[in-house]
């Protein structure tokens, strides 16, 4: 077998380290190392100082952001960087905005790129909260149980987290026109299932239909039109699970690792 002259991938570092912030839900304990760990390792293999830490997947923005802040401090200490690039997946994008505005991180953030972040909320949160009390209590208790199992350092608050993700509350906490002064702010949205020609992971089919009835085309968790913020970059033909490398949508060839690398390539082109 002939040897490839240069088998290692090219080193293509960004100016500032990249921190991937995961979103709401139990996906953080589905994959070894957690959600976005594989993507971070893929970026590191290309010379990018990438981190994919964890916060409680079922907690409020303020609590999660306090955890993120500790991880961001560590990333800056390890790399000696004076700024960071944040890529927020799903509600992780809201956490990034909270860090900048409420926790004094704005001057240490070079960029925030959000991926399928519910910048205008998701009707799914309201749907769960509107269920009869017995069903709602069961759902919240289950999420709290998973949250305690997934992340022992902070107690979960699933009810508070759901309430924050409703369209009405998100509109109050995160005005859609509000960006971060001095930072590049941009967004990427996703679409799949009903109203599109993109297949969807079967486990997201029901939520996809519920959300379509309330807010139109979506990725199974977040409405497509409600995920735009800052500069509009692209629309992904991938559901919420496929965007982070899981899911079983038939015919999908979406590569989450290549996708997150493409975001870093955008950052590098901008000198970030």
Automatic annotation (TrEMBL):
UniProt xrefs under SUPFAM superfamilies: alpha/beta-Hydrolases
Task: Note the superkingdom of the native organism.
Answer: Bacteria
Quick one: signal sequence residues? Answer: none
Task: List the Pfam families hit by this protein, alphabetically.
Answer: Abhydrolase_1
List each copy of the AB hydrolase-1 domain by range: 62-125
Name listed for the protein in its UniProt record: AB hydrolase-1 domain-containing protein
Q: Name its species.
A: Rubricoccus marinus
